Amino acid sequence: MRGRGAWRLAALPALMTGGLLLVAACSGGGDPDQRVGQIGGVSELATYAYTDAGAEGLYDYLSEEVTDACTKEQVREALAGHEQPTGWDQIKDIKFQSVDTATATVILTYNDERQEEQWTFVREGTSWRIDIIPGLESCGSAG
Length: 143
What we know:
This protein has 143 residues and is an alpha+beta fold.
């Protein structure tokens, strides 16, 4: 009985060190999980801006490459043939092509239906922006 307790006590520092290493590996600026949360947040905020203010509401969430190529009115015209979502459901399948570029499946609601769309995101400074969404092919890097 005494040997068993001593083994547990001796193993405790090793287990604690392993746990700390795991925590350290899952934190920090380059952690993909942090980027996933940031991209998810941008997709959600942009979608609700789009649902509330139309395509022009989406403009503030677009990459510089898109906004340099298209005005708010051009974005509205480009998305005129694309149904406006009524809400955001979730984001999934985020894949990083580089540290600053990712694609993801964004699930939007259109009235009572859910629809998946492929979006591309780019990091500009410390923020993530939308670079490509369906309907914007004529603006910026998508065109």
